[in-house]
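Our consortium's second objective concerns turning raw sequence data into structural hypotheses that experimental partners can test. To show how far this objective has progressed, the report includes one record in full. It was chosen at random from the queue rather than selected for favorable results. The single chain below, 165 residues long, was entered without modification.
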Amino acid sequence: MTKINSVFIINNDSSLIKVGTINDENKKINLDKSGLKSVDYFNTQVLQFIQDDDNTMVKTFHFINSEDIFGIIFHIIRWRGCTGYLVVQKSDRGLRYLCYLYDKIKHNASSFGTTIDLVKTDFIIKEFKKAKEELMIKLKNYEAIIDIKNAILKIGGNIEKSFGI
């Protein structure tokens, strides 16, 4: 029997917005289109990450870039009845904190009664606050990326002073 599981974004009022589905048998992703190309591509990448998740990761640092949207999947919450993927996202519209919920049953978690309909916004916000320190440690390791980006932008202006060993 083929099992198709759904992926949702939890809204600020704890309602669920369906993003798409993943077919367990053939690993096919079916995106519920939003009508915005950048959002659809971003959500497709999140669905791909969820599909590829081997059910053992908790700490992650996965970048997604789609036109004006840049996001990081940085923490995974595993319950028996669903899985949550915490995302920080920046776009031209501002910053967002998102939680994608996947309704596939996972049996390797400590909270055995939690299903997708029991996950509430307040709990997700607490999880973001707990995972904040983890994210900050990871981002500190990536500060060099900003320096390298700035160095690349300055090639031509200061390369003679910094070239070579």
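The partners drew two points from this record. The chain is about 30% helix and 35% strand. The chain has one domain: 4-158. Both points have been shared with the crystallography group to help prioritize constructs.
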